[in-house]
Design a protein that fits this description.
With 95 residues, the protein is an alpha/beta fold. Strands 1-2-3-4 form a four-stranded mixed β-sheet, covered by helices on one side. The chain has helices at residues 15-28, 51-54, 60-72; strands at 3-5, 36-38, 75-82, 89-94. Strand 3 and strand 4 form a beta hairpin.
């Protein structure tokens, strides 16, 4: 197993573009089955403080990580931002 660490030039507040960017990188240079793919903290939206605008209420990033894991046969870990109450949370997702 190898760790495949993606350092991406994230687009702030653009979850779909960041998902597409990561998928494109992995398609161009696929990880080996069983590898660990590591995505950045706050991967889907960048390091913003505007949590109300970017919180992942529908778990789109968790679903995206699951698709990556199944597609490439890897484990994926990365950060996401949620807002389950008055405070935002920076969390890690593993798929």
């Amino acid at each position: 197993m190898q760790a495949v660490v993606l350092q991406l030039d994230l687009l702030w507040h653009d979850r779909n573009a960041n998902h597409a960017m990561a998928l494109d990188v992995l398609r161009r240079d696929p990880p080996a089955p069983g590898d660990l793919v590591v995505l950045p903290e706050a991967f889907p939206v960048g390091f913003t403080m505007r949590i109300d605008e970017v919180a992942d209420h529908d778990d789109a990033t968790g679903a995206f990580f699951s698709v990556l894991a199944r597609t490439f046969g890897v484990t994926v870990v990365g950060g996401n931002m949620i807002k389950p109450d008055d405070l935002g949370r920076n969390i890690a997702i593993v798929a």
